[in-house]
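Hi team, as promised in this morning's meeting, here are the two structures we talked about. I've kept the exact order from the run log so nobody has to guess. The first one is mostly here for context; it's the second one we should focus on when we meet again. Sequence first, then the predicted structure tokens.
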Amino acid sequence: MNILDKITLDKRKEVALRKGLIPTSQLEQSVLFNKATVSLAKTLRHSTTGIIAEHKRRSPSKAVINNGLNVHDVAKGYEDAGVCGMSVLTDGKYFGGSLDDLLTARASCKLPLLRKEFIIDEYQLLEAKAYGADVILLIAAILTKAEIKQFSELAKQLHLDVLLEVHNEEELHKSIMPSLDMLGVNNRNLKTFEVSLDTSKTLSTLIPDDFVKVSESGISNTEAIKALKPYGYKGFLIGENFMKTDNPGANASQFIKDLAL
């Protein structure tokens, strides 16, 4: 069993538990549930940098990245730096995140917010909306084609953007459908944790232009972005690179300045 299988198994138990604690009617009555959302896909299409900056305390591959920062400061810093959007990890067991992190980020900035989560149930989309997300992540490796369709179509009804993440050609072919906004290529091999930008380069030609192309994982310098832009990528998800510093916002700001050089 690889790490993704393990996380998914735990996620099913966790979601079943949460559904028992908070009924969907309660989520739908939350203050943020009817808030207008901001499209990350549109923001990326019109951006020169395409940076989606992440809040991530730890990960299975890196253990602790940064436990000492509060979400408010990180969100504010990212917004001041001029990033296009913010990704907030809400998985607790493996990444040290929570839905409260999403809520805090929402109260701290006006950026489009991505709920970075292992989504296996429609309930998690209602949670995302209730806690202030504008975008949800769907991971092709853990979902069937029918589930991708079901979840992405519900996301559209909720006015949430959909970023679908793939790791290889097979996942890409089963995933392409009109209810997606962005296609993300994860450069990390989930079985070995090795990272290669070649994954993004290889898959770029197979992604139709209707979708905003996003490259994820292993983007630690401006050279990587400059190398990927000719392949049609408009979005670049950067997590550890900013989070491993004492001031992710200032770091993101410098990164964006360097990118313009």
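And here is the second protein, the one for discussion:
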Amino acid sequence: MKRIQVNTKPSYEVLIGPGVLSESGAYLKGLFPDSRLAVITDSTVAPLYLETARESLTAAGYTVSTHVFPAGEASKNFVTLSGILEFLASVPLTRTDCLIALGGGVAGDMAGFAAACYLRGIRYVQMPTTLLSAVDSSVGGKTAIDLKAGKNLAGAFLQPSAVLCDTDCLRSLPPEVFADGAAEAVKTGVLCDESLFALFEDGSLTVNPAEVIARCVAYKAGVVERDEREQGERKLLNLGHTIGHAIEKCSGYRIPHGHAVAAGLAIMARSAERQGMTEEPIADRICACLKAQNLPVVTEYPPDMLAEAAGADKKRSGDEITIIVPRKIGRCALEKIPVSGLLFTIRAGWREN
């Protein structure tokens, strides 16, 4: 079992290892001895892990209510949020109770945002079941839903009270879903250092996922501790996301988040290198690493279409937008460019050759 402390206010612990879900009730009893719990999950995760979680929680003496919404990015909206809030009110949950997010990134976002809204904020716990949510979205307290104008445009910051990551859940992931999470992990390697990035090049992600998840979480925890509200350094975690979110939007969210981010990261790496913004050649290395994880490094959507979609990104401020430029493995930089410059940036890296 690996334990990582996230020293935000309040602080919380991330547990990573096999069998965590079965032990979740006993662990949470030490945090919330007298609370009622509500588990929020989706229609894909529910038949796989809801009963295991509920059995552990009820065995610890908890009264548990559950709510299941349709799986997929298409559910990340106000209609689903409203359904969750009405469910919480019907239980009813109070301010001394706790909400559980069981699932991947969408379940974590929906449950986390609901926790931030309901009664102006209640406690919640993340129980990630996908690699993407384990290495990235379950940690840091960012919650959001999508609007017609773009991805994650309505949300709130609310740190979880705990993150319980059962690596056994990764065994049930289809290859494409596992790869989706690998994109966020590779992104973290580019941001962090050579030693973490090398773990993706030597196959450690599939051989020892707990070690890789722990390294990614530890890196993100440090960034979040220094910049919880994304005023500066935390923006670096959006590497590949401006173009990635544009790809998602252009596809009508048929392309999953990690695959879109992988293509966005590859485009940004090629663009930076071709514009002389990198300190060493990195594009081929990043692209080779992404391909090794069965991820795309190009997109079918043309630069003008992507630039228009990216113009609505939440990192825009007035007529400027912040992009994240990889200088070398382990060092990236925030650069403000005019929104009108997005087209040139995307065009520079859009083609693989």
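Starting points for discussion:
The mean pLDDT is 95.
The radius of gyration is 20 Å.
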